[in-house]
Each structure stands twice: as C-alpha cells, then as structure tokens.
Amino acid sequence: MELNKRGVSGVIVAVLMILLVIAAVAIFWTAVKPFIEESTEGIDTTSECLTVDLTVVSAVNSTSTGSASIQVKKEMGDATLTALRVNKNGALVDTVTGTNVPATLETKPIAITANVGDKVSVVGELNDKVCGSQSDEVTVVGA
Length: 143
What we know:
By secondary structure, this protein is of the alpha+beta class. It is 26% helix and 38% strand. Strands 3, 4, 6, 7 and 8 form a 5-stranded antiparallel β-sheet that branches. The chain has a 4-stranded mixed β-sheet with strand order 5-2-1-9, with no helix packed on it.
C-alpha cells in the first residue's frame, strides 16, 4: 500500500517565516515609535545648555541701603539664555531677563538687594529650564 503524502516545501516555509518576522517588527515599531519621539523632544535644548558657564566676577555693596551690584560674565556656551536666576545665601532672590542677560564672553551688571557678607551666585535659564550649573558663590564686599 502506497501512501500519497505531500508536505510543505522548504522554500515556502522560509518565505512564510520571513513574512511573519517582518510583520512582527512592523507591529513592534508602531507601538514603540511614539515613546521614542516623545522622549527625545527636549534633547536639542538640553544639549545646548550643557556647556553654559556663568561666573560672578564681583559683588559689591556700595551703599548703606543694602543695594549691591554684581558683575556676571558668561564664560562659554552656545545657548542664548532667556534669563538668569540670582541666588543669595542659597535662595532665589531675582530673575533677570532681556538685555540684562550676558551673551558669550560678555559681562553685565545686575543690581540686587544684598548686604556685605551675603553670598551670591547665578544660574542660567533657557525656556524656563535651568541651563548649565550654578556659578561659584561670591561674598558681597563693601566698597
């Protein structure tokens, strides 16, 4: 007795496996792609901020009213800062915007309320995000 058996060709099996793998990759990619795009949106701004370096050149209280002038220099960084956050004794006391924010290698004076002995520092801001690291604290001296 002879059995008439027919099987699936090896070529057809290989083609079907390849099509199944391609379909699985396509389904996986459509599920993962939105998460990747969402998580990389802020990278341009963040990478631009990494090199920002601000320095408080001097901090002088020249009056008895508690008014002081600090000189802030932007040492390096390509980011065009939108603001500076001025800290006194570790707490935010002022946010400076507009033309008072120094460009790269530029020094700008900023008037704040500070007494002799207070410690001041600054940090840059780009579109409401802290940019770079906080400058070293400088002690306010009398004129």
